[in-house]
Amino acid sequence: MSTVTSQDGTTIAYTRTGSGPAVILVDGAMCHREFGPAKPLAAELAPHFTVYTYDRRGRGESGDTAPFSVAREVEDIAALIKEAGGTAHVYGISSGAALALEAAKAGLPITKLAVYEFPLVVDDTRPPVPADYTERLENAIADGKPGAAIKTFMRDGVRVPAPVVFMMQLMPTWPKMKKVAPTLRYDAALFDDLQDGTPLPEGRWASVSVPTLVMDGGKSPAWIRNGVAALAQAVPGAEHRTIEGQTHMLKPKAVAPVLIDYFTG
Question: Which long-range contacts (CB under 8 A, 24 or more apart) does 64-68 make?
């Protein structure tokens, strides 16, 4: 394990693999270097790039300095880019896509940006995320009930069917999920007013000036795909691409060729 120190003094753990231009992978909710798609994706990309996977603050082996803000997570990416030599391609998935876009908005030296399925809710193809969603996450964490926070995220955030959520509690991954459940409120902070079923705020990403690839999966539900299409229109000059046969649970082997082509093209 290697580490960098973010601007507020937080230690951010990362792993570097491969050789070539730098690519930083930004995880979605509850994932980190050893739990989620980043590690197998890094293996697919390593023959072409120097790949940086890292534990977002509060997860895995990274620190978690209070108080939290989205700006602090952007500073974490800035520290990694500096470690990588001063510039890097960045790829983010789900809430990691939201964070990667925030990094681009902040003017970080990103060469090319690729994002997959930022979970926006822009119309009535699904119910909006409840107005008290973040409050319920906060209360569950404050009460020492990480499992309740996960259920709130699964049911109201990403609309996982109740029977599936019940079965998840019986799986060996559930304790690992509970360990990082407190960071669900950090992901919620990235969504702000972007999941209420209304069109995207005008000009929200107008300042993003880096080449951007916005992706979705061909088998993902309409609400996600509609949100991705709207995002592609909202980011200046963005390219929109659908990865056929994929859902929000994107397979590394499916996205790796797309990223290789985009980052090297």
Answer: 64/10, 64/183, 65/8, 65/9, 65/10, 68/185, 68/186, 68/189
Whether the predicted pLDDT of 192 surpasses 90 = no
Burial class (CB in 10 A: 0-12, 13-18, 19+), 265: exposed
Split at pLDDT 50, 70, 90, the class of 34 is very high
Task: Tell me: pLDDT of 1 over 90.
Answer: no
The first and second tokens of residue 215, run together, are: 């992706």
Please confirm whether the linkage preceding 67 is cis (ω < 30° from 0).
Answer: yes
Q: Encoding tokens for residue 189?
A: 């902070």
- Give the C-alpha separation, 115 to 41, whole Å: 14
The conformation of residue 117, written as its DSSP 8-state character, comes to -
The model carries a pTM of 0.97
Place of tokens 């669900």: 184
In angstroms, the CA 23 to CA 46 distance is 9
- Partner residues linked to 3 by β-bridges: 13
Determine how β-strand 50-54 pairs with β-strand 110-116. unpaired
Please count the other Cβ atoms lying within 10 Å of the Cβ belonging to residue 7. 12
Confirm if 47 and 17 have CB atoms less than 8 A apart: no
Q: Residue 210 in contact with residue 104, Cβ under 8 Å?
A: yes
Beta-strand ranges (E) seen in 99-257 are: 110-116, 212-217, 239-243
